[in-house]
Design a protein that fits this description.
It contains 13 helices and 17 strands. It is of the alpha/beta class. The protein has a 7-stranded mixed β-sheet with strand order 4-12-11-10-7-5-6, sandwiched between helices. Strands 1-2-3-15 form a 4-stranded mixed β-sheet. The chain has a 4-stranded antiparallel β-sheet with strand order 13-14-17-16, with helices on one face. The longest helix has 22 residues.
Length: 429
């Protein structure tokens, strides 16, 4: 192999040889170490990481308390499978999730490893409880890459490709998008039309929705829309599932995104920032719904792994001890104001939006329709990397740049990131 290659280039060549192209890597970077909101590659270059493992690291890379909890747990029991013997930290995680989501109501939790697993099992639970089959999700929503997850996902590319046939009885409704002129009333009218023309509400087991669409473009569901969904689900005995996999654990300024709408979901899916980088997910829901599947109907060999549960308890402690919600809100205001200032200087930023520290910019063409400009978004991302800032894209048209920095990012790092982003915009626009 050419000795003039950098270590990044050498390893990426091996990646191309040994790893299939279907798993995309957003940046030509091989990470060596990370701490907080910073990451260093194998050639020693330092980056501000405003991706955070795709919203996984709300408490930052390698938080000392998470690292210590993992080390301690590995020395005690690393894996036993909760389906074989119980262990205390699984039960503790479930109890704390039940309190966070359900308050004083009786909620129960079951733990898995990935967000897609959580979504699939939430659908199973809803179907088991209602004895109905249909599920409604939303255009622009993302619910995972398993076959059911892809079917629920409201984007054709790159997720659906030629992977069909897809599971039946999945329907897609319109999600509000104020920037593109789709109001809550418009979306609700289309949902009612779906009930009238495609699937009667008494055949619908569940409606699943992200309170803020993640991969769909960081679109926040308006308060009135989520309240209307809650009312329709109650009216028709439909299980309302809130997919909090990306929006949860402080990303939006509250512990969960649905809390902005003052509603109570029946089931909530969680993952990503639950365990500070360890693979852990779950379904949290009303006890009578969660108990619908009979023994053996739920599970997974690695679900609720003991090491991941130890990490999750450390993460939940950090939220209480360090007031990360307030810290995130302060950072959110700084980032949002900075993005608005950049929009004033760069009109190709068509929209600045988000909820809490879940912020994004939509890149558009220089035309009357503000057409989505995916190529420009990619150029901004590439130029930002050159400047030392890691960000990734999202949106149905892949023209949205999203920011998922840890809640432990410092104000100085946010200011530095905005300077890097301005450098990238100047080069790209």
């Amino acid at each position: 192999m050419n000795s003039a290659l950098t270590e990044n280039q050498r390893l990426l060549a091996l990646r191309e040889q040994h790893v299939p192209r279907g798993i995309a890597t957003a940046h030509p970077v091989v990470a060596a170490r990370a701490q907080g909101a910073e990451l260093w590659d194998v050639d020693g270059k330092r980056y501000l990481d405003f991706v955070g493992g795709i919203g996984v690291l709300n408490v930052g890379h390698n938080h000392p308390k998470v690292v210590e909890a993992v080390r301690r747990q590995v020395g005690e029991i690393s894996h036993a499978s909760f389906q074989v013997v119980a262990y205390e930290n699984y039960i503790q995680v479930a109890a704390r999730l039940n309190k966070l989501v359900g308050g004083d109501a009786h909620y129960k939790s079951v733990l898995f490893t990935s967000g897609a697993e959580a979504v699939e099992n939430a659908v199973k639970i809803a179907r088991g409880y209602t004895n109905r089959t249909a599920v409604i999700s939303f255009r622009g929503g993302f619910h995972g890459r398993t076959l059911l997850g892809v079917t629920l996902t409201g984007m054709s590319q790159p997720y659906k490709q030629n992977f069909g046939p897809f599971p039946a009885e999945i329907y897609h409704a319109t999600y509000p998008n104020a920037y593109r002129g789709v109001s809550s009333d418009d979306a609700l009218a289309e949902l009612d039309e779906l009930f009238a023309t495609d699937v009667a509400p008494d055949r619908v087991a569940a409606i699943i929705i992200e309170p803020v669409q993640g991969d769909g473009g960081f679109l926040a569901a308006p308060r009135e829309f989520l309240q209307a969904l809650r009312a329709r689900c109650t009216q028709h005995d439909i299980v309302l599932i809130l997919d909090e996999i990306q929006a949860g654990f402080g990303r939006t300024g509250t512990m969960f995104g649905f809390q902005h709408a003052d509603i109570q979901p029946d089931l909530v899916t969680v993952a990503k920032s639950l365990a500070g980088g360890m693979p852990l997910s779950g379904v949290v829901g009303r006890a009578e719904i969660m108990d619908a599947p009979t023994p053996g109907g739920l599970g997974g060999t690695y679900g609720g792994n003991a090491v991941a549960c130890a990490a999750a308890l450390a993460v939940l402690d950090l939220f209480e001890e360090q007031d990360l919600l307030a810290q995130g809100e302060t950072l959110a205001a700084q980032l949002h104001d900075g993005l608005l200032a950049l929009q004033n200087r760069y009109p190709r930023i068509g929209d600045v939006r988000g909820l809490g520290f879940m912020q994004a910019i939509e890149m558009v063409a220089d035309d009357a329709a503000h057409s989505p400009d995916a190529a420009l978004a990619q150029k901004v991302i590439d130029e930002a990397r050159q400047a030392g800032l890691l960000v990734i894209k999202c949106g149905v048209h892949r023209n949205v740049v999203r920011f998922l920095a840890p809640l432990v990012t410092t104000p100085e790092q946010v200011a530095e990131a905005l300077q890097m982003l301005e450098k990238a915009l100047a080069a790209a626009c």
